[in-house]
Design brief:
Radius of gyration: 14 Å
GO molecular function, one term: protein-disulfide reductase activity
Shape: globular
Strand order of the largest sheet: 2-1-3-4
Order of helices and strands: EHEHEEHHH
Organism: Ureibacillus endophyticus
Number of domains: 1
Number of strands: 4
Helix content: 25-40%
Strand content: 5-15%
Number of helices: 5
Largest sheet: 4 strands, mixed
Structural class: alpha+beta
Distance between the termini: 15 Å
Protein name: DUF393 domain-containing protein
Pfam families: DCC1-like (PF04134)
């Protein structure tokens, strides 16, 4: 079973989120692909995800999750206390996604746009597809 996190490779906030996941995923269960990469585009097409997606995407067990559902399912796979965020799946999706959308809309303001690609460390290189 492969879990793949699709992210906006041109967004500094998204790239830093990937680094956050890597540091807290000691079991190395997550793989990563930017939405702009060939692998990312193939997964978007395979799972009928809109090409205009403006969300983190988690592909897990051949199912795609977006927005807050993706974030909370990723949190469940992280080490330590991050799993506790999974309880927010009890909150109705529309309400969770309102909060997600506010953060997503302002993500470029939260951190400056990144003009350079994220380069994974040698230890993490095999986690990018």
């Amino acid at each position: 079973m492969m879990k793949v996190v699709l992210f906006d490779g041109e967004c500094n906030f998204c790239s830093q989120s990937v680094q956050f996941i890597i540091k807290r995923d000691k079991r190395k269960q997550f793989k990563f692909a930017s939405l702009q990469s060939t692998s990312g585009r193939e997964l978007v097409e395979k799972h009928n995800i809109p090409k205009t997606i403006d969300s983190v995407v988690l592909v897990d067990n051949d199912r795609a999750y977006t927005k807050s559902s993706a974030v909370l399912r990723i949190a469940l796979g992280l080490d330590r206390y991050w799993k506790l965020l999974y309880v927010f799946l009890l909150v109705p999706v529309p309400l969770r996604n309102i909060i997600y959308d506010i953060i997503a809309k302002n993500r470029h303001k939260l951190l400056k746009q990144n003009n350079a690609c994220m380069i994974p460390s040698k230890e993490d290189l095999d986690r990018f597809i």
